[in-house]
Amino acid sequence: MKRRFLIFVLLLWGGSLVSCQDQSNGISTIKGHEVSPTDLDNFIQNQIDSLKVAGLSVAIIRDNKMVYNNAFGFKSLATKEKCTPETLFEACSLSKPVFAYFVMLQVKKGIIDLDKPLYEYLPNDDLADDGRYKTITARMALCHASGLPNWRENTNGQLKILFQPGAEFGYSGEGYQYLKDVLSHLLKVDDRGLDKLIQNDVVAPLGIDFMKFTWEDTYSSKKAFGHRNGVPTDNGPVLLNDRDDTFGAGYSLHTTSSDYAKFLIGMMEPHLQQRKFVDEALVSQNGMPNEAGELHRSMAFPIKKVGERLRYYHSGNNGDFRAYCHFYKEKGYGIVMLSNSDNFLSSRCAQRIIEYLEDVWFYV
């Protein structure tokens, strides 16, 4: 996902921790037991040290309230500057649910119809030779059934239809980008203008401090460096190869774990006037194809049954950043983890944290 390459050499491993918790309050696990914030701090710190994860920001939600928000490790292993709760991370594919919610708000306003073919709003010249694209709808794009590849770079740089839209599941960032272009056209804004509308419609109403799809150079001072194989990469914008897009609907969001937690709280406990559209964004799309492994899709999150509960979740991979979140809407429980380390998921660091909180881990 990134244009810049590795430029620093790893000097020394070690961990640091910033905590903004009231250490007197216990954190309940999914099974109802309590873990002290200090014990959780120590556990997470031990994990990132032993697994060589550069940095990590964690937010935990209980009863629709954020009860824990800590940062661990370093913004850069080269400089040893510590992560803090205010450090910005790439949300990676956790960008998609935020964009999906924005789309639902535009449906509410009558700007776009979920089931009207996107080409009727904005033809796509890259797909003009394949008439099947004229059946792609916003619902298909949000549910990853558009027939488009994840990225055209996976198909020799050409945007192609891989299967009949609506017939199969196929994870697709390109579907989100096409939908983004359609909304920009309908709303008569460029990428920055679209981001500004998201600030007005999503960010401000949910009390979120920082959540941006487009980039300003001033953000670098607050952003963590990505890391590949323990070596820092960069702390600039998210660039998808050599594209001109400054707004990546499926990948370019920058935020903190606490601010993303506020978004999840908004999904679990929406304002009354938004409840219908949040519920519609989260309902399983039975008319759309599902993934393997009993994974179902809403228009904002994948869904899997865990015991008697429905877990809404998402993971993200921008190469040198990783992200994960999940929540149980009826319980008001959730977790957000943002990392600037390519091995955060593969090292099982995320899994160990989830299991320490007595929850079930699965990752696909």
Strand elements, count: 15
Largest sheet: 8 strands, antiparallel
CATH superfamily of the domain at 17-89 and 223-236 and 256-356: DD-peptidase/beta-lactamase superfamily
Indicate the radius of gyration in whole angstroms. 20 Å
Number of helices, where a helix is a run of at least 4 consecutive DSSP H or I residues: 8
At the first level of CATH, the class of the domain at 17-89 and 223-236 and 256-356 is Alpha Beta
> pLDDT below 50 for ≥5 consecutive residues: which ranges?
1-23
Q: Write the element-wise H/E pattern from the N-terminal end onward.
A: EEEHEEEHHHHEEEEHHEEEEEH
Q: How much beta, percentage-wise?
A: 15-25%
Q: Give me the side-by-side strand order of the main sheet.
A: 1-5-4-15-14-13-12-11
The CATH topology assignment of the domain at 17-89 and 223-236 and 256-356 is: Beta-lactamase
CATH architecture classification name of the domain at 17-89 and 223-236 and 256-356: 3-Layer(aba) Sandwich
Mean pLDDT rating:
90
Distance between the termini: 19 Å
Shape: globular
Structural class: alpha+beta
The share of residues in helices is: 10-25%
SSE order and pairing:
Blueprint (H helix, E strand, L loop, with lengths): L16 E3 L7 E2 L5 E2 L1 H15 L3 E8 L2 E9 L15 E2 L4 H14 L29 H5 L30 H15 L3 H13 L7 E2 L14 E2 L2 E2 L21 E2 L1 H12 L6 H8 L13 E2 L4 E5 L2 E9 L4 E7 L4 E7 L9 H8 L8
Antiparallel strand pairs: 1-5, 2-3, 4-5, 4-15, 6-10, 7-10, 8-9, 11-12, 12-13, 13-14, 14-15
Summarize the structure.
With 364 residues, this protein is α+β, with helices and mostly antiparallel strands. It has eight helices and 15 strands.
